[in-house]
Design goal:
168 residues, alpha+beta, three-stranded antiparallel beta sheet
Length: 168
């Protein structure tokens, strides 16, 4: 991974993509995640977006990352980074674009008092959602403006929500 010189980055490509998405959002109604995916797939016929649905558990690395010592690496001076999968706590870096010699720093230094493995301390993020009854009524009121696909999606979502909350 190379860090660009200010003003010479690939951020223009990202800005262009965001601009194209916003242009389509201005003239479209999005009623559900399904509708958003359909919109994203319609943006560019010549070079369509590859939309990836995330359906895995979300993990919270925030608290676990406090056990890492980031001060060992001077991030403001880094020009190239290299990560090696089998060495997850080693950061290989270079402070020069032309230099192919990488320095290495191990950032794992602060183990907790129980001596736990770093990855054992990563917790799953709770994704339980509470939908106020008033919001449910607003969604149901909006059915008349939704496409059939969006309406069926929202009905199934609310059905599942009601079933899971009636069992609690």
């Amino acid at each position: 991974m190379k860090y660009s010189i200010p003003g010479h980055s690939c951020i223009q490509e990202v800005d262009n993509i965001h601009s194209r998405i916003e242009k389509h959002l201005r003239v479209s109604d999005v009623w559900s995640p399904l509708g958003l995916v359909r919109l994203l797939l319609r943006i560019d016929n010549k070079k369509p977006f590859h939309v990836i649905q995330i359906n895995k558990k979300f993990l919270d690395y925030h608290n676990s990352s406090k056990k890492l010592n980031y001060k060992k690496v001077t991030y403001t001076k880094i020009r190239k980074l290299k990560f090696i999968k089998r060495e997850p706590f080693s950061v290989f870096f270079s402070t020069d674009y032309s230099d192919n010699n990488f320095l290495c720093s191990n950032i794992l230094s602060k183990l907790n008092s129980e001596g736990q493995n770093f990855f054992d301390t990563v917790n799953e993020i709770e994704t339980g959602v509470s939908i106020p009854e008033e919001k449910i009524k607003h969604i149901e009121f909006a059915y008349k403006w939704m496409t059939n696909d969006d309406k069926e999606y929202m009905k199934a979502l609310l059905n599942d929500y009601r079933k899971s909350n009636s069992n609690s």
